[in-house]
Design brief:
Number of strands of chain B: 0
Strand order of the largest sheet of chain A: 1-2-5-6-7
Radius of gyration of chain A: 17 Å
Number of domains of chain B: 1
Radius of gyration of chain B: 18 Å
Structural class of chain B: mainly alpha
Strand content of chain B: under 5%
Number of helices of chain B: 10
Largest sheet of chain A: 5 strands, mixed
CATH architecture of chain B: Up-down Bundle
Distance between the termini of chain A: 38 Å
Oligomer: heterodimer
Distance between the termini of chain B: 40 Å
Largest sheet of chain B: none
Helix content of chain B: 55-70%
Largest interface: A-B, 19 and 27 residues
CATH architecture of the largest domain in chain A: 2-Layer Sandwich
Order of helices and strands of chain B: HHHHHHHHHH
Number of helices of chain A: 5
Helix content of chain A: 10-25%
CATH superfamily of chain B: Ferritin, core subunit, four-helix bundle
Order of helices and strands of chain A: EHHEHEEEEHEHEEEE
Number of domains of chain A: 2
Structural class of chain A: alpha/beta
CATH class of chain B: Mainly Alpha
CATH superfamily of the largest domain in chain A: Fe-S cluster assembly (FSCA)
Shape of chain A: elongated
Shape of chain B: globular
Strand content of chain A: 25-35%
CATH topology of chain B: Ferritin
CATH topology of the largest domain in chain A: GMP Synthetase, Chain A, domain 3
Chain lengths: ~190, ~260
């Protein structure tokens, strides 16, 4: 039997969702992004998901690629795992490194013999895919705000409104804003 | 879906991929020498996007060729072909150290590039439609950047004159960027693109005139650039030195793993 599930990672800490298949069956409503999970009946998917969750984005050590919304699907069949990821942007230079890290982590799971990680052409990533936990970590650990749609990003330090100063910042996925309240220069993760 | 015209599609993909690749490389040459720090960063990011788009397109070429799109296979397409196998246009090959020309080219290229991707978003060739949706999201920043910078500069009479001169010098190359190659009729016929690249010309001419006061002469598309005749199988004189700069490190040791 193949279990096909949709795991909503946008509304809550995705690590908590990896506990059991039963828990995975009750995704939260209202999320903008779900992870497709397929597993044959006997497969224990939790350690596979935990292995994927354990990989951090090289740009943000301590922040899982799953929290950043890179995970699109996981398939486990007869010890063979297929993982589909999407890049935050097409010119990201870290893709090979992330794929290698994911492959090594999942291969280390008991009972897994083969892992293939692919970068999918679709869908396109957007900051809406960040989990609540991911946004919090960017804010607290990196003082990085997130641009959701056309909304005004909040200053990670004081919560004040920020104004864009430069569309391009220290890396391709960050622009530079300034907080109107506390005048701090703020990096903003954007699409 | 109608059957895919493989030969035409390959040429079409290469034309776009080569433009993206060379434009991306040209942007990176400004890193460290752009007039101010924000521009170093902007052109680094924009160049990175164009190179990313080129990779997506070269991957599609690999798939058509039945070759796994490994880094090596993509590098072979990007750096390893003979000059006559490239399908780039002269505008992206053009060597300039003039900031006004670089900025004018950035504006023209991204205006046209945005439209080229938009013609592919509903492509009957699904892998290309997927690539187009992703690229289009990224492109909006490029156009906004070029527009904002030009808005600022147009307020200054000297800058305005320099920009107008830059557009005038680039004008003979615009036709080549917008020219529909002989393969495009089949591409549009098969629903791979919703319109040929040349469909952009009236809109582009109007924008250039409105914004910069440069009037493109009627029928300028029919007066092909003397170096390439607007034929994407011909390389301009700037191609060989550009390719040599791009391959400079690669050529130190062809067997090295990077």
């Amino acid at each position: 039997m193949i279990a096909s599930l949709h795991l909503d990672t946008s509304g809550r800490d995705p690590r908590n969702l990896s506990g059991s298949l039963r828990e995975l069956r009750s995704p939260l409503a209202g999320g903008v992004h779900s992870v497709r999970i397929q597993a044959d009946g006997g497969a224990d998917i939790a350690p596979v998901l935990e292995a994927v969750f354990s990989i951090d984005d090289p740009e943000y050590p301590g922040v899982s690629i799953v929290d950043l919304g890179l995970l699109e699907h996981v398939e486990v069949r007869n010890g063979i795992v297929g993982i589909g990821l999407i890049p935050t942007f097409s010119g990201c230079p870290a893709l090979a490194m992330i794929a290698d890290d994911v492959e090594a982590a999942v291969l280390a799971v008991d009972g897994i013999d083969e892992v293939s990680v692919s970068w999918l052409r679709s869908p396109a990533w957007s900051p809406e895919r960040l989990s609540v936990r991911g946004k919090e970590a960017l804010k607290i650990e990196f003082t990085v705000a997130v641009q959701i749609g056309t909304s005004t990003p909040e200053c990670p330090l004081c919560g004040g409104p920020t104004v864009e100063k430069s569309m391009f910042g220290p890396s391709r996925c960050r622009s530079v804003h300034r907080c109107e309240a506390c005048t701090e220069t703020v990096e903003v993760m954007r699409g | 879906m109608t059957s895919v015209p493989t030969e035409a599609l390959r040429e079409f993909l290469l034309a776009f991929a080569d433009d993206e690749h060379l434009m991306g490389q040209q942007h990176t040459e400004w890193i460290g020498v752009a007039p101010f720090l924000e521009e170093d960063l902007a052109l680094a990011s924009i160049g990175q996007d164009e190179l990313g788009h080129a990779v997506m397109l070269y991957e599609l070429v690999c798939e058509l060729d039945g070759v796994e799109p490994t880094d090596e296979a993509i590098d072979a397409l990007a750096y390893g072909r003979g000059a006559n196998e490239y399908r780039s246009c002269r505008l992206v090959e053009f060597a300039t150290v003039d900031w006004a020309e670089a900025l004018a080219r950035h504006w023209i290229y991204d205006m046209v590039e945005g439209r080229r991707w938009s013609f592919l978003e509903g492509s009957s060739y699904q892998p290309l439609a997927d690539a187009a949706v992703r690229a289009s999201r990224e492109e909006s920043y490029h156009r906004r950047h070029a527009e904002a910078l030009i808005d600022g500069l147009l307020a200054d009479p000297t800058a305005q004159q320099r920009l107008a001169a830059a557009f005038a010098s680039l004008m003979p190359m615009i036709g080549g960027l917008c020219a529909s190659g002989p393969w495009e009729a089949e591409i549009v016929e098969a629903g791979i693109a919703s319109a040929p690249t040349a469909a952009i010309v009236p809109e582009l001419s109007r924008f250039i005139t409105e914004r910069f006061g440069v009037v493109l002469p009627g029928g300028f598309m029919d007066k092909p650039d003397p170096q390439t005749k607007n034929d994407r199988t011909q390389r301009s004189e700037d191609f060989a030195p550009l390719m040599a700069r791009m391959r400079e490190v690669l050529d130190i040791d062809l067997t090295a793993t990077w």
